[in-house]
Each structure stands twice: as structure tokens, then as C-alpha cells.
Design brief:
This protein is an alpha+beta fold. The chain has helices spanning 7-10, 30-37, 78-83, 90-96, 112-130, 149-167, 179-182, 204-207, 220-237; strands spanning 18-22, 44-48, 54-58, 61-68, 99-105, 135-140, 145-148, 184-190, 195-201, 209-216, 246-248, 253-260, 268-276. It has two domains: 8-176, Cell Division Protein Zipa, Chain: A (2-Layer Sandwich), CATH 3.30.1400; 183-276, no CATH class.
Length: 279
């Protein structure tokens, strides 16, 4: 029977977190935060701690909001400035920010569905909190992806579209999820750049593994389309792919699926190797 990467093999999924880049020091206060967040749906409570942090209980999740009144080190954004999808003004955001907020869930998830729901609420909560501050950008830490205000607004609008489609029981809701924000893409060159592969960063928080496409002759744009297409497929159907299976690409090409276990240095990998279709 083909090997399958099961939940018990990766255990609890890693938590996600988000940093909001601020132009000046944060001035959040418990009463104002409670009043502002009351616009979000459902029951929500805010509790302040002595160290200036806030605990937000919202539905099944508890989030912590930490105020850090200094800038994030520049080297944190090295990858984000090169790979963040659609980002045009990243250097300016990094240079201008003087403080930041860190928002993170305290509860852990074991399955994809609750992990997506938690990420969903983390973005909605962050979007609301950011309206109270002089906000410059949003950094999703597990993917090392940076958004400016306009890009983040667009991603949150996509989440609202997902909610509307799910409420109407329409298919294809997962295609509107902000996959390019939650999951980063790293290109892997081989043969002195003659061939390119790709690997995700941050998918582990949802599925317990990353995806690697072994080097091909495809250009970077096609690699990105294939890897994000696979992510959408998995977000729609769950982690159902098994070692030894194939995933169709075209009439003459397919991916052969294999798995590599986690090591001390990286997550488990779902590996896609391109091959020609027999016949």
C-alpha cells in the first residue's frame, strides 16, 4: 500500500504568527481595543497583561498581541524583499517602520481545516487592529512574506469572498484563500541555473509538510503556477496525496509523488518529480 504522510507522523502543526510594521510606537489600550474589536463577529474578550500584551479570546482561539517599540532587524526581511508576491515598496516599508506588533494564536492545531480557520481569523484580527495604528505593512513569519496595506486589504477581501462562498455552499472557495501570502516560494537552481526547482515555505503550518518540485526546464512563472495549483488542490481536498501516485500535468507529463521525512534542519517534504507519461 502506498506510503501516506499521516497526521500522527507530524503531530501538532506549527503555529503561525503575523507582525504588523508600524510607523511609530504602538499606543494600544485595553478599553479602546475592546471597543474597536467589537465590530468583529462572534463573542470576543480582551484582557491586558502587566507586560503590555493583550490576550484576545475569540471563538475557539486565544490570540496574543504584543507591542514591541523598536524596529524589526533588517535581515529578517532579506528573503521577503526578494520573493513576496506583488510587493513593490518593500524596502520603503522596512526602512520607515519604527515599531511593530506581534499577533499569534496560543492554541495549536493538528489538522488542516482548523489550521486554515485559525490563519483566517489571525488575518481578520490583524486587519482590525491595524486600523488603530499608523500601519505600514504585514509580515507573515512562517512564509517570510511581506504585504503592504493594499496587498493585505486585498487578501482580507479574498477571505470575505471565501466566507460568502462557503455560506452559499459554492465550490471553489479555497481558490480565493491567500495562498501566496500564507505560503512562500523558493526557487532552487541546478546545473548553474540551467534548470529550476521550487520549494514552499510555510505550508508546513497547514499540512505538516512542505512541497518540493525537483529541477525542471520550466521557467519560474510556470513553476509558481504549478506549485500554487497543487497547494489549492490540497487546501480543497486535504492531504490526500500518497507516495507512488502521480499528478497529471499535461498529456505527456506528470509528477511522480514521493515523501521525505523531516530532519533536524527541515520539515517533511512532499516531493514532485516530473516525468514523461508512458505511451
Amino acid at each position: 500500500m502506498p506510503e501516506k504522510l499521516r497526521k500522527e507522523e507530524h503531530g501538532v502543526l506549527p503555529n503561525v504568527s503575523l507582525m504588523i510594521l508600524l510607523k511609530n510606537h504602538s499606543s494600544l489600550a485595553e478599553k479602546a481595543l475592546t471597543q474597536h474589536l467589537s465590530q468583529l463577529p462572534g463573542n470576543l474578550t480582551v484582557t491586558a497583561s502587566q507586560d503590555g500584551a493583550f490576550m484576545v479570546q475569540w471563538g475557539p482561539n486565544t490570540f496574543v498581541i504584543m507591542q514591541v517599540n523598536h524596529a524589526i532587524p533588517d535581515e529578517t526581511f532579506q528573503i521577503a524583499l526578494q520573493t513576496s508576491y506583488g510587493l513593490q515598496n518593500g524596502e520603503q516599508l522596512v526602512a520607515e517602520h519604527q515599531a511593530h506588533l506581534i499577533l499569534s494564536p496560543l492554541n495549536s492545531n493538528e489538522d488542516m481545516g482548523p489550521a486554515i480557520a485559525t490563519a483566517f481569523d489571525l488575518m481578520r484580527l490583524s486587519h482590525s487592529v491595524a486600523q488603530m495604528e499608523n500601519t505600514l505593512g504585514f509580515f507573515w513569519t512562517s512564509s517570510e512574506t511581506l504585504h503592504d496595506q493594499a496587498l493585505f486589504d486585498h487578501s482580507v477581501s479574498g477571505l470575505e469572498q471565501v466566507m460568502q462562498m462557503q455560506a452559499k455552499k459554492q465550490e471553489g472557495a479555497q481558490s480565493a484563500l491567500p495562498a501566496t501570502y500564507w505560503v512562500g516560494l523558493r526557487l532552487l537552481s541546478n546545473n548553474r541555473g540551467a534548470t529550476l526547482g521550487a520549494m514552499t515555505q510555510g505550508l508546513n503550518a497547514f499540512l505538516g509538510y512542505e512541497i518540493e518540485i525537483k529541477p525542471t526546464n520550466w521557467p519560474a512563472k510556470v513553476l509558481a503556477e504549478r506549485i500554487y495549483g497543487t497547494i489549492t488542490y490540497l487546501f480543497t481536498n486535504g492531504p490526500i496525496l500518497q507516495a507512488g501516485q502521480t499528478l497529471g500535468v499535461s498529456k505527456i507529463e506528470q509528477f511522480r509523488i514521493s515523501f521525505e521525512p523531516a530532519t533536524d534542519r527541515r520539515s517533511a517534504l512532499l516531493v514532485l518529480t516530473l516525468e514523461r507519461v508512458d505511451g
